[in-house]
Write a structure and sequence with these properties.
With 393 residues, the chain is α/β, with parallel strands linked by helices. It has 13 helices and 12 strands. It has 2 domains: 5-43 and 285-384, Aspartate Aminotransferase, domain 1 (Alpha-Beta Complex), CATH 3.90.1150.10; 62-281, Aspartate Aminotransferase, domain 2, CATH 3.40.640. Strands 2-8-7-6-5-3-4 form a 7-stranded mixed beta sheet, with helices on both faces. A 3-stranded antiparallel beta sheet has the order 9-12-11. Bound molecules: pyridoxal-5'-phosphate.
Length: 393
């Protein structure tokens, strides 16, 4: 079968493939510690599950409006005022099945063949993949370890050309756990305003900041009308399997999103949207407790990794990822990820799953129990200790 040319550019998300490799080993009787998938290990809070059950019984089982249930769009606008400090018109809120489709719709709506999309390396792999799929040119900007995984504003500016249509950033950041400062975000806003560029602000980890408060670029003057805020329920409310996300859009993008939704999924699950109203409007204690637990685990994983010769790990500032550098073991990230899986029964991702800049790194999701983290650290230390002495000397 001859596939369409556009399929050549499409990439994938390695986390799903790594999980499949790990499951194949488990089928042979091995016990694997899973540190690959970026999802909270907690169950969705009970009040949200109860609201979904109620909504099913109340008959929220039909198609709904393509842009989302009005009650949820209002709840998202209200919460955005509390969380981001910005006034949002519910008319500019769009609900989607997971946050990922927002990348897809934004890029399809904006990018013509030859247009450039500036995105972070390392970064969520779908930014680059979708850009290629749409015929655009992905232009990576580096987030370097020595800069605490923040970008260099001069470098970012130098990458912008008359063809740049979209700048993507993600803070708190997958895969590094880095968080941009207000000044960093102001630098992006300055470039976007000067050069008339749209910004995709991936704020999916915004409620998982360990120090200070989350800052949204849409709060800066003149930015709401050129910013696509990507957000959703997967991470903060532990709802990955529900597939529920939302965007806050510049008014000019609402109708294009509506058409793309009608052409692809029609609408997002109606009863789930009713439960999402409870997620936003109900008690937030579970969300806060999860962040506190991640904070404790962050310390365990960072201390544990830094105690292993040849590995160095920066303290992340948000989300639930660390991005340790393993070059001191004489292995790169891909070699180390393979070795840890096959010799150590620990599943992590290679840094290259997120771009070239992360070649010496592995990504660990510490959304796993403290016991499993301790076990993984023990196993990683054993694997590294067996690498020939010259490597870690
Ligand atoms: N953005 C980033 C940076 C992510 O890490 C993820 C999920 O891993 C998403 C967006 C997508 O979230 P969802 O599962 O709601 O589609």
């Amino acid at each position: 079968m001859k596939l369409a040319q556009r399929m050549i550019g499409i990439g994938t998300e390695t986390a799903f493939e790594a999980a499949a490799r790990a499951r194949a080993l488990e089928a042979q009787g091995r016990h694997i510690v899973h540190l690959e998938i970026g999802e909270p290990d907690f169950d969705t809070p009970a009040n949200i599950r109860d609201a979904a059950k109620r909504a099913l019984d109340e008959g929220w089982t039909h198609y709904g409006p393509p842009l989302g249930q009005p009650k949820l769009r209002e709840a998202i606008a209200d919460e955005s005022k509390r969380f981001r400090g910005i006034d949002v018109d519910p008319a500019n809120v769009v609900v989607t099945p997971g946050a990922k489709p927002i990348m897809y719709y934004a890029i399809l709506a904006l990018i013509e063949p030859g247009d450039e999309v500036v995105y972070p390396d390392p970064g969520f792999p779908i930014y680059e993949s979708m850009t290629r799929f749409a015929g655009g040119t992905p232009v990576p900007y580096a987030l370097r370890e020595e800069n605490d995984f923040r970008f260099d504003p001069d470098e970012l500016r130098s990458l912008v050309t008359p063809k740049t249509k979209l700048i993507i950033f993600n803070s708190p950041h997958n895969p590094t756990g880095g968080v941009l400062t207000r000044e960093d975000i102001e630098a992006i806003a300055d470039i976007a305003r000067e050069r008339d560029i749209t910004v995709l602000a991936d704020e999916i980890y915004g409620r998982g900041v360990f120090e200070g408060e989350h800052f949204s670029i849409a709060a800066l003057p003149g930015m709401a009308e050129r910013t696509i805020i990507l957000d959703g329920f997967s991470k903060a409310w532990a709802m990955t399997g529900w597939r529920l996300g939302f965007a806050i859009l510049p008014p000019a993008l609402v109708d294009p999103f509506s058409k793309l939704i009608i052409n692809s999924v029609s609408c997002t699950s109606s009863f789930e949207q009713m439960a999402a109203v409870e997620a936003l409007s109900g008690p937030q204690d579970d969300v806060k407790e999860m962040v506190e637990e991640f904070r404790a685990r962050r310390q365990i994983i960072v201390d544990g990794l830094n105690a292993i010769p040849g590995i160095r790990c920066r303290m992340p500032h948000g989300a639930f990822y660390v991005f340790p550098n393993v070059a001191g073991t004489d292995m790169n990230g891909t070699e180390m990820a393979d070795k840890l899986l096959y010799d150590g029964d620990v599943c992590v991702l290679s840094g290259t799953a997120f771009g070239k800049v992360g070649a010496d790194h592995i990504r660990i999701s510490y959304a796993n129990s403290r016991e499993n983290l301790a076990l993984a650290l023990e196993r990683i230390a054993e694997v590294v200790a067996k690498i020939p002495a010259s490597a870690t000397a």
